[in-house]
Amino acid sequence: MIDIRDAGKFIAPALLEPDFYNRKSFTCAAKFYTLVEIVKTWSKVTGKEIRPALSGPSSLPPALEVAMKGARGLITVYAYFGPTGQADLDWTLEQLTDKLTSWEQFVEDHKPWFED
């Protein structure tokens, strides 16, 4: 998850030390959240219980449904950004000096948009 308000926090280190960060990549996210974490946080902050639709009838065309089922296992093997994704994210976060916005804070900050 990345809050667009945090974009500068990822750019600042490279601007301050361009030679050091030359040819390096940043994994620009505050954290890798699971669907369960996202749903629980949303429910907690908004006070409205939601559940992910992980099973049941699909509105996808049958061929796409088959392809999606085959792809689900890939997240287990390759994670968000490949096999080194978590290590890459950890390295990126070590480079930053400013605190990033958490998913909970993001939902809290934008809560009025979600209310009826």
Alpha-beta classification: mainly alpha
Tell me the β content.
Answer: under 5%
Number of helices: 7
Ranges where pLDDT stays below 50 over 5 or more residues in a row are none
Instruction: Please report the distance between the alpha carbons of the first and last residues.
Output: 25 Å
Number of strands: 0
- What's the main sheet like? none
Which labels suit this protein?
56% helix; NmrA-like domain-containing protein; 7 helices; 116 residues; NmrA-like; mainly alpha; NAD(P)-bd_dom_sf; 0% strand
Question: Can you describe this structure?
Answer:
This protein is mostly helical and 116 residues long. It is 56% helix and 0% strand. It has one domain (4-110). It has helices spanning 7-16, 18-21, 35-46, 62-78, 85-95, 103-109, 111-114. Helix 3 (35-46) runs parallel beside helix 6. The protein is flat, with a radius of gyration of 18 Å.
Topology readout:
Elements: H1 7-16, H2 18-21, H3 35-46, H4 62-78, H5 85-95, H6 103-109, H7 111-114
What's the short version?
This is NmrA-like domain-containing protein. Residues 1-106 form the NmrA-like domain. Helix content is 56%, strand content 0%.
